[in-house]
Amino acid sequence: MQPIPIIASVLIALSVGSNDTSNALGICIGCRIISFRRAVILFGVFVLIGILLQGRKVMKTVGKDIVEMDLRILGISLLVSAILIIISNWRRLPVSTHQVIIGSLTGSGTALGADVNYGSLFEIFLSWALSPLAAFFASIMLYRAMEKTLSKLPFLQIERIIRVLLLASGIIIAYTTGANELATILGPIIHAGLIDETWAFLGGSFLVFLGAVLLSNRIIETIGSGITALDPYSGFAAQFGAGCCVFLFTSLGMPISTTYCIIGGITGIGVLKGTGTVSVNLLKKIALSWILAPALAFLTCFTIIRTLI
């Protein structure tokens, strides 16, 4: 049973690389500010810096505070999570790694009668609901503030400033991907004593980078241009607003979805420009995924354990 959580974590880390490169730099690539090759290198470097500097709080929340862990819970939860995340990525649906992993851990723990910390779970659910909304409003406020402060400058100067700021905000998202997303994957196996922390940080960051290099093209198309048309100006407001929200929740130790914060930020800008610019059908599919992903993870793990163990 011991190798299963490690193998599953490897698959999830690869999937995070394929899924979350779009969160960090999909808008930059969509706006043609940076090439795909340079984007994934930047992404990998700042994922490593994020997990090294600020990953431990989220690791403790996921790996220690939610459910009383044992190898059966860990193995089945992470294996089911890996399969669900890979399928979602293949179907081009941005999915929250946190929701799938936490849904799986809770389902497995409940089926085995382990102690589940419902107080921590409630705080996490609240964070999942609040974070995209916070990103939605933060992006709108930032866009309005930029209209007032930058509109007096020459157009070309504004364009140059925004492109630099947009790249900087992408780097913030890459950093929080390490501090929050990768920390969610590594938390359970590190706190279960299956792997040394330093090797987990280095290996996890490399696998996320590898996933970005090999598999991220499909999701980047969805985030970068699928929800609403973005120029560098509005792209920065959406991404920076989302990045600030993820950074805030990461500092509180809350495992929130970078994916859904980015979607919240992009949607806020789309609504500000006019609801006709927002792809409602795509948002409906994403919202459905937001509800179904943790529920499906919970039920799958619960059923497997009750059937086999």
Strand-helix topology:
Blueprint: H1 3-30, H2 36-54, H3 56-65, H4 71-90, H5 97-111, H6 118-150, H7 155-191, H8 197-215, H9 217-225, H10 232-251, H11 258-273, H12 280-308
Features:
mainly alpha, single chain, 12 helices, globular, 309 residues
What's this, in brief?
This protein has helices spanning 3-30, 36-54, 56-65, 71-90, 97-111, 118-150, 155-191, 197-215, 217-225, 232-251, 258-273, 280-308. With 309 residues, it is mainly alpha-helical.
Written overview of the protein:
By secondary structure, this protein is mostly helical. It has twelve helices and no strands. α1 crosses α8, α2 packs across α7 and α4 runs antiparallel to α5. The longest helix is centred in the middle third of the chain and has 37 residues. It is globular and about 65 Å long. The two termini are 13 Å apart.
Q: Give the class from helix and strand content and strand pairing.
A: mainly alpha
Q: Largest beta sheet, briefly?
A: none
Number of helices: 12
- Beta fraction: under 5%
How far from one another are the termini?
13 Å
Q: Kindly state the mean pLDDT as a whole number? A: 85
- Determine the fraction of residues in helical runs and give it as a percent range: over 70%
Catalogue the unreliable spans.
none
Radius of gyration: 19 Å
Tally of DSSP β-strands: 0
Shape: globular
The helix-strand sequence is: HHHHHHHHHHHH
